[in-house]
């Protein structure tokens, strides 16, 4: 082995570490660059605050209205998380049923597609009639809008188990339940967590849609009141707070995914494989 081989390996590892440090810092650099460019654009073009407020003006509004923002953000977060957790439970159960049974798939999938095609904002008035304005319409809208991605991904993960593998397991005496629990569900976990990262972001969309239609609290309600007063900086402050909550929940889903299904992406965490373009 050449004498410089250990040095080359160490250089590759060090390059991989530098790349990972850049990857961790890159999102923050991009966000900071976006706000700087935004500020420069607004000032250079003299855009009025009621059209597009500068980030400094939005930050000033956030400082001024921090308490209503915090209170309403908490209300939105609670309704979103509850609706999302309901979607996880029911979506996982229905996804397993659809992915493991052709009859269930044939019977329910067209109905699910049709229901998912209905704009959820059109469902909110019905939910208000049934449950009244406020908490439950927001929860159920978050549930309805985040339910479908989970069902589809879990069903796909279970249904794509190779037929040859199923035949071998049956020949070895495995029951259909054993195939689902010991092969199908582990196989579906990467699909499941991929759906969670989509579902948690759209769940906020559902909550805020309901809050803008029929609620007396929440970020959607706050933005509606602010827009009626033409307080555009506060509207943008609500958008930024919602984005921060969405990123935080996405990070929670990614952290759980890394701790439970790290085997599915173990090659990506090897520093010796992280030096490519």
UniProtKB/TrEMBL annotation:
<feature type="transmembrane region" description="Helical">
    <location>
        <begin position="234"/>
        <end position="256"/>
    </location>
</feature>
<keyword id="KW-1133">Transmembrane helix</keyword>
<feature type="transmembrane region" description="Helical">
    <location>
        <begin position="26"/>
        <end position="52"/>
    </location>
</feature>
<feature type="domain" description="ABC transmembrane type-1">
    <location>
        <begin position="73"/>
        <end position="253"/>
    </location>
</feature>
<comment type="similarity">
    <text>Belongs to the binding-protein-dependent transport system permease family.</text>
</comment>
<dbReference type="InterPro" id="IPR035906">
    <property type="entry name" value="MetI-like_sf"/>
</dbReference>
<keyword id="KW-0812">Transmembrane</keyword>
<keyword id="KW-1003">Cell membrane</keyword>
<keyword id="KW-0813">Transport</keyword>
<feature type="transmembrane region" description="Helical">
    <location>
        <begin position="72"/>
        <end position="96"/>
    </location>
</feature>
<dbReference type="InterPro" id="IPR000515">
    <property type="entry name" value="MetI-like"/>
</dbReference>
<dbReference type="Pfam" id="PF00528">
    <property type="entry name" value="BPD_transp_1"/>
</dbReference>
<protein>
    <submittedName>
        <fullName>ABC transporter permease</fullName>
    </submittedName>
</protein>
<feature type="transmembrane region" description="Helical">
    <location>
        <begin position="191"/>
        <end position="214"/>
    </location>
</feature>
<feature type="transmembrane region" description="Helical">
    <location>
        <begin position="108"/>
        <end position="133"/>
    </location>
</feature>
<keyword id="KW-0472">Membrane</keyword>
<feature type="transmembrane region" description="Helical">
    <location>
        <begin position="139"/>
        <end position="161"/>
    </location>
</feature>
């Amino acid at each position: 082995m050449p004498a410089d081989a250990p040095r080359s390996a160490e250089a590759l590892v060090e390059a991989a570490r530098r790349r990972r440090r850049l990857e961790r810092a890159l999102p923050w650099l991009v966000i900071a660059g976006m706000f700087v460019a935004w500020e420069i654009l607004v000032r250079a073009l003299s855009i009025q605050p009621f059209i597009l407020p500068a980030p400094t003006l939005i930050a000033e509004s956030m400082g001024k209205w921090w308490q209503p923002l915090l209170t309403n953000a908490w209300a939105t977060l609670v309704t979103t998380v509850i609706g999302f957790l309901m979607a996880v439970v029911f979506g996982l159960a229905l996804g397993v049923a659809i992915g493991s049974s052709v009859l269930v798939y044939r019977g329910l999938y067209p109905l699910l597609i049709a229901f998912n095609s209905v704009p959820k904002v059109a469902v909110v008035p019905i939910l208000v009639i049934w449950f009244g304005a406020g908490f439950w319409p927001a929860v159920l809208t978050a549930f309805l809008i985040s339910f479908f991605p989970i069902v589809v991904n879990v069903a796909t993960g279970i249904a794509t188990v190779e037929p040859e593998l199923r035949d071998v397991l049956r020949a070895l005496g495995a029951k259909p339940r054993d195939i689902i629990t010991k092969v199908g569900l582990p196989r579906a976990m990467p699909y499941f967590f991929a759906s969670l990262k989509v579902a948690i972001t759209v769940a906020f969309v559902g909550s805020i849609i309901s809050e803008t239609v029929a609620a007396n609290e929440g970020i959607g309600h706050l933005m509606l009141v602010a827009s009626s007063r033409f307080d555009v900086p506060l509207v943008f402050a609500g958008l930024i707070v919602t984005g921060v909550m969405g990123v935080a929940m996405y990070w929670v889903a990614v952290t759980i995914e890394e701790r439970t299904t790290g085997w599915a992406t173990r090659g990506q965490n090897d520093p010796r494989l992280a030096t490519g373009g």
